[in-house]
Structures are given as C-alpha cells and as structure tokens.
Amino acid sequence: MNLEEMDGFFAALICSPVIVPPSEYLHEIWGGEAHGNAPFDGIDDVNEFFSLMMRHWNSVAGDLLSQDTVFIPWLDVEEGEKLPKGNRWAQGFLRGIEMCREDWDEIFADDDKFAMLLSVMALAHENHPDPEMRTWKTPPDPELREKVLTGLAVSAQRLYDYFRPHRMSEARHGTAAPTRRTKKIGRNEPCHCGSGKKYKHCCGNVTIN
Questions:
Q1: Which CATH number is correct for 3-201, 1.20.120.740, 3.30.230.10, 3.30.930.10, 3.90.79.10?
Q2: What is the pLDDT of residues 165-191, one digit of tens each?
Q3: Main-chain dihedrals φ then ψ at residue 198, nearest 5 degrees
Q4: What is the spatial distance between Cα 209 and Cα 189, in angstroms, rounded to a whole number?
Q5: Buried b vs exposed e over 7-19: b needs ≥16 C-beta within 10 Å?
Q6: Domain boundaries along the sequence of the chain
Q7: For the segment 64-101, what is each residue's pLDDT rounded down to a tens digit?
Q8: What is the C-alpha to C-alpha distance for residues 114 and 77, in angstroms, rounded to an integer?
C-alpha cells in the first residue's frame, strides 16, 4: 500500500464494528501472505515502520473521535492534476472492510445505511477493469469529483459514529471478535446484500449524480 491507500485502510479498521488486531491486518499493508515474513532488513527498520504506522493510526483515530476536529482523508494529488483522484483511498477502505466483512453486513443489506458508503464505492470502482463495473462511463467533471471526495470524509465519520455502540459493547466484554475473510465477488454472482440481483447490477453498479 502507498500512504493514501493505507490511510483509507486504517479509516475502515477504526470505523469497524469489531476490533481487528494488527496480527490480522499488517500483512495487507506490505503485500505479503497472512503471517508471512515482513520486508524489513533489520530491527531498526521494523521499529521505524511501527512507529510511523502507529503515529498515523493514532492521527486518523484521533480525528474521527474528536468533537473539535474534522476528519480529512489523506489524498495524493498526482503531478499535473488540481484535484486528487481518491481511488486508492477508497480501495484501501474497502480492503479494510474485507478484514471483517460479515460484521459490516447490516450496512450492505440496508439501502439507507448503504448510502453511507456510496462515495467510497464510486471511487473504488471508477477504473475497474470491467467497464460494466465502472461508476462512470466518462470521467466526472471537477465539481462532481470534489463532491464525491468530500463524501469520503462524511462517510468515514458517519460510519465511525454508527458503529460506536458496537465497539463499546465489544470493549466491555474485553475480547476481540475473530475476523472473517470472504472471497471477492464475481460480477455475475449474486450480490452479497441479499437483493437476489447479480452483483454487477446491484452493489457493484454504483452511480453518483
């Protein structure tokens, strides 16, 4: 992951209804297999990585928790562009959801709650290899992109607040729920929201106006 994708990944894990321990998600950051070897040359590299990672995690968590600050996603602006794309952040957020996908089911199963994810879904699928899965047929104009980018911050804050009681309940019990990883859904498979439609015609077909 680059920093933008990791920022989105952390945001999803912090918003999550359950606690996902570092032992479950660290390999996602450096691209290795679960519980595989980390790509470090020595203990100094390990210590620096964990120091920077936890500092960034605490920054994201602090902004989402605080009543005095506004959470702003870390988005990279490509050379020659005036606005960030936001695609990597949104993809990182979805990767965070996948770490405990079943615990997010109530969001995907309800249209009103799913609306909290629309900006994330739109940017995550903008450049999908399958044209049928893409959010827009032509690139959005700057005004629409700025609107959707603003929606990322709103989505994260709303989801963090929505799942706050879930996290508090888990904290009171003092145990973290086991994470469950699910396979990626093919475009012709039934949608995970239970609508009975194919994924490409349901949650995989997101349109932002």
A1: 1.20.120.740
A2: 988 887 776 654 444 444 445 555 655
A3: -70, 150
A4: 26
A5: bbbbbbbbbbbbb
A6: 3-201
A7: 999 888 899 999 998 888 899 999 999 999 999 999 99
A8: 28
d(CA 36, CA 14): 23
Give per-residue pLDDT as tens, 197-208. Answer: 555 555 555 444
d(CA 28, CA 46): 16
> Does the global pTM surpass 0.85?
no
Contact in structure between 16 and 10 (CB atoms under 8 Å): no
Question: Which letter, b or e, does each residue of 146-173 get, where b requires 16 or more Cβ atoms within 10 Å of its Cβ?
Answer: eebbebbbebbbbbbeebeebbeebeee
Whole-angstrom Cα distance, residue 16 to residue 165? 11
Instruction: Give the orientation angle of helix 142-162 with respect to helix 164-173, to 10 degrees.
Output: 30
Contacts of 99 (CB under 8 A, 6+ apart): 12, 13, 16, 20, 24, 25, 28, 179, 181
